[in-house]
Amino acid sequence: MADTEVSLLEYLDLSQLTCLNESPEHTLKSIVADKKRNTGGAYVLSDADEQLLITLPFNQTVKIRSIALQSASAGQGPRTVRLVINRPALAFDDVEGGAAGEGKGGVVQELELAAEDVREGRKVPLRFVRFQSVNSLHIFVVSNQGGEDETRIDAIDVFGQPVMGTRDVSGLKKVEGE
119: helix, coil or strand? Predict the structure, then answer.
């Protein structure tokens, strides 16, 4: 089978989606609820400072090859991003101060995004070998392009493929009496 790269947003488990430090008016759900790349006017905006901690849970195991983060505001677009995988719960304390590796918070990769990549929403390749069996992807936005007080993300996309042999069980319900 050829390794085809597709958007993994269709495999999101929206009921488990979280974003720490998001503005109540501009939420993560508003840009990923359709399970496809946001092209409308919605965006997620940080609240107290420039940091965001986004949790993207999948309804089946996936392999991730690249991600794309897009912002219409050049200075507010993400710059330094740390990626963590497969953690049931994550707080800012878990990921602050840790560089890539099995150190602080299990950060698997740290990215420095170029302003053009964020403005155009370009795919940023990941170290594929580290993202072979992902149930949840946590994106910690450490800083933004212009050192602004708020970070803005207009679109997020994650690319790769579902792992064959796993299936979506999120819609299954227990039958009474069995």
Answer: helix
- Residue 1 banded pLDDT, cuts 50, 70, 90: very low
Q: Are 155 and 68 in contact (CB under 8 A)?
A: yes
Residue showing tokens 């995988």: 85
- Residue recorded with tokens 């792992």: 163
- C-alpha–C-alpha distance, residues 153 and 160, integer Å: 21
Residue (of 19, 14, 41) closest to 154 by Cα position: 41
* Assigned token pair, 37: 């790349």
Q: Cα(104)–Cα(154) distance, rounded to whole angstroms?
A: 29
Beta bridge partners, 21, equal none
- How confident is the model over 69-96, as pLDDT tens digits? 999 998 999 999 999 999 988 889 888 8
At 70, the amino acid letter reads Q
> Whole-model pTM?
0.88
pLDDT at 171 over 70: no
Buried b / exposed e along 62-78 (16+ C-beta atoms within 10 A): bbbbbbbbbbebeebbb
Going by C-alpha positions, the residue among 22, 17, 37 that lies closest to residue 152 is 22
Q: What is the pLDDT of residues 112-123, one digit of tens each?
A: 999 999 999 999
Helix, strand, or coil (residue 134) = strand
